[in-house]
Amino acid sequence: MPSRTAILTICSNNYLSQAEVFFASARAFHPDADLVLGLADAKHPDEHYPEGVEVLTADGLGIPDFSSFAFAYDVMEFNTAIKPFLMLRLLERGYRTVVYFDPDIELYRRLDDLLALLDGGASFVLTPHFSDPPGPGAARTERHIMQTGVYNLGFLAASQSPETEPILRWWARQLRYDCVNAQHEGLFVDQKYMDLLPGLAAQAHVLRDTGYNVAYWNLPRRVLSATPGGIWQVDGRPLGFFHFSGFVPARPYELSKYTPEPRATGALAALLYAYAQRRLAARAGTTARPYAYGRFRSGVPVPDMVRRMFRNKHLTWSGDPFAHYDRYCRLPHPAACTGDTGEIVSNLMQYHHAAEPALRLAFHLDNPVEVTAYTRRFAEMAATAGVEGSLWRTMP
Amino acid sequence: MADHAMKRNDAGLPDASQAGTEALVLRLRRLELDLEDLRFENARLKSSIGEKQDEIMALSDRLGHLQMLLDTRRRTMLWNRLRRLSPLRAMLRRQR
Question: Which of A149, A213, A223, B30 is deepest in the core (most CB within 10 A)?
Answer without folding.
Answer: A213
